[in-house]
Every structure is written in structure tokens, then in C-alpha cells.
Amino acid sequence: MIYKSLLSIILILFSPALFAFSSSTSISPTNFTGSIYGILALLIFIIGYFFVLAEEIIHLRKSKPIMVAAGFIWLLTGIAYTLSGDNITAGLSARHYILEYAELFLFLLAAMTFITTMEERLVFAALRSWLIVQRYSLQKIYWITGLIAFVLSPIADNLSTALLMGAVVLAVGNSYHKFVTVGCINIVIAANAGGVFSPFGDITTLMVWQKGVVQFEEFFQLFIPALITWLIPALIMCKVVEKGPPSGETEKLGMKKGAVTIIFIFLFTLALSILSHSILNLPPVLGMMTGLGILKLFGFYISKHEPITQDQGHIRHHQAENMATHAQCKGDHTDVIRRFNIFKVVERSSWDTLMFFYGVVLCVGGLATLGYLTLLSNFLYQGLGATTANILVGVASALIDNIPVMFAVLSMEPDMNLQQWLLVTLTAGVGGSLLSVGSAAGIALMGQAQGVYTFMSHLKWSWAILLGYCAGIIAHMYIGNML
Fold first, then answer.
1. What pTM was computed for the model?
2. Which is higher by pLDDT, 304 or 263?
3. d(Cα 213, Cα 184) in Å, to the nearest integer?
4. Which of 26, 28, 315, 423 has the smallest number of CB atoms closer than 10 Å to its CB?
């Protein structure tokens, strides 16, 4: 009963609500939490999120139920306000949340396109291949993959990094199941920990940065605490790694043409986004979309200098003229499908994830407009205190996922100083490592290493991860003079 009650509270608390960029644009909700409309809206959200949590069991994409729930919640919100004599507030609030989501959507779409393009150019496959052909021992692979995950995730995001390093572990693991298991756990912890000290390492840190409560350079204060949260469980788990020769391919794989240039365009885009936001106070999405435009231009150049293909086979450059008699080839608009097409790359972005964000943002936007988050904020941050509340946020993120956790906290807008905002950024980021279902990296690796890395195999090491979690919090509190 205690668990069920706690889970019910957490479902309400960590339902993602969109963050406002300034208090001047916030819309004060009327309290409809005790009305039939508020109760029905909350019930709809809980049912919708239940289907989200059951995605791995029922195989229903998480975006579908939550988008439907969002629509019904806002219908109830609109009815509640209209019947109370206010037919303006609900519409203004809905437009406010949609606008804020649009900025996050464009930023994520640009970032995903860069990552997918580098994947298409075999950047990550070449790195994986290089690690495999080195024929390092299993112990070395364990530490190398963990270290790369920690260092790479602040730039390439923790999910992509976890999948890349997970592929290395699986390739060299052969029949060493303990190595694969602890190797995957090590990667999840390292990727999540590395993602917290950079705005680009995780969607939660991106939201905190865009909110403006933590500046870009201030995230690096979390480097040592994040490192500790990874190293402690990593040192404990490495004792069980088997000794044996690695397996895998022996031929080194190279990157495709233009890969290095795309990497530099990506780094330039990140720098542009950071500087335009820090110096000019412009939305970071402007820098990302500008970089995406440059990438698209370079993609057009690549498409002109690579062999072209048709639906039913490959052709050579000198055959292009013959094909031109059957199809018009004018710039991007052509019936000839080229081997590199930036629009095909965009199509491979995680649209289910992007639509899921829409659903959860609008769901809790509606709940916030009905007054639920005000009540919850008063209970947590005024009743328990900021430090206790922020530590519990991290524990709860292991059950629900750290992204909705941070959405809810930012939407509450608790009155906290910089160190407290850094604390909740740390806990929400690394707290998801406590369980395999607590982060996108863990869920992705369970699918990649199906049958070997499982929920129960991760749970066996949760005590070690919890030690690192507590040690990281203590380190941050010590560094920030919070003790």
C-alpha cells in the first residue's frame, strides 16, 4: 500500500509540465483540483502514463496514448474555465505551452538530425570498429567504453552514446555474460553521469539551460560530482569482469566522405548556439537551426559528388545522362534518389520521442493550468525543503524517467539558488541510473542486449549505483558549501 501511494504521488509530481522562460509570461492557474473536471483530467493522465510505462510489454508506442490524453485534458480544462465565466485563460495557456514546446522541438530536431547524419556517414561505426580491432582485454574494454561514454555524452547526448558503446560491448563480449551485463550497466551510469555537466548531454540539462536558471559555464561545477557517481559503482562492478580474449571483427571500418566536415559543422553549431545565447541572449534554437541549414547545404554538396541510385539499383555517374531522359534532375527536386539525402536523414529522427514530448508537455500544461502543480510545489519545496525535495526527485526519476521529472520541477518554478538548481540537475540526471527503466539509455540498451542486460540484472547492482548517487550528492554539497 505504501508503494502504491508513493507511486500515485510520483505520477502526479513527475508528469512533465512545460517550463516558462520568464515569470512575465507565466499564467496563474485557478484551482480546479477539487472539481470534477480536475479529477477527470488527472485520471486521464494517469491512465495515459500507465500505457507509456507499459510500452515494453504491450508494444504500443508511448506517443500515441499520451497525445490522446493531452487532447482530452485540455478539453476538460477549457470546459472548466468557460463554465466559471473565463473563456480566455485556457486558450492563452494552451498557446503558451505549445509555443514553448515548439522551441524545444526545433532544437531537438536539429540535434537529432546532426547525430543521425554522423551515424549515416559511419562516424560512430568507425569509432566502434577501431575499438574492436585493437583487441583490448575485456577489462580494458570495460573501462574504455565507460570513459568514452562519460566524455562523449556531453556532446553527442547520453542515448546515442550508450547505444554506440553498447554495440562495442556486445561485439567483443562473445559468451562472457557477466562482462556484457556489467559493461552495459557501466555505460548507462557513465552516459547519464556525463550528460549532467553539459546542456547538450541530456534533454533535462537542455531544459535547465534554456530556462536560464543555470548558465552554460556553471554546468561544469557538476563535473566532479558526476565523475564520482560513475567511478564508485564502476570500481565495484569491474571485479566481476571475466578474463578472456575479446571477439569481433578484425577489419577496420572507415568513415564516408564528408564525415569530418560534418563533425566540424556540428561543433560550430554548438558554439554558435552557446555564444548567441550567452552573449546576445538569443534563444539557443536559433544557433541550432542555422547550423542545420549549413548542414543541409553541405548535404546538397555531398549528394552532387556521390554515386546516385534509383529505387531498383545503383548506377554510375556516367549513366546519369541516360537517366535524365526519363527523370528530371533539378537540385533537390528529382525522381533520382541519391545515396545521400538530408531529408531522408531527417525522416530517421526519433519522431515517436518528439511526439511523446508534445503529449507530456501538453498533459501537464493542462494539469498545471488546473492548479495541480501549485499544490505539489507547496508540498515538496515548502513542506520538505529544497534539498530533501531535490534528492527525492532523483530517486523518483528512476521510476518515471528523468525527463518528465525535470519538466515538472521547472514548471513549478521553486525559489532556489544556483546550487540547488545544480543539485536537482545532478539528481534528475544520475538518479535514472538506479533502475534500468529510469533513463532512455537504460531502456535502449535493454533492447540492444536483450536477454543479457535486463531489469533484474541491473537491479542486482542498484546498491552500488546508490552508493555513487549518495557520494555524488555529498561531493556537490561540499563543493557548493551546502553542508
1. 0.72
2. 263
3. 33
4. 28
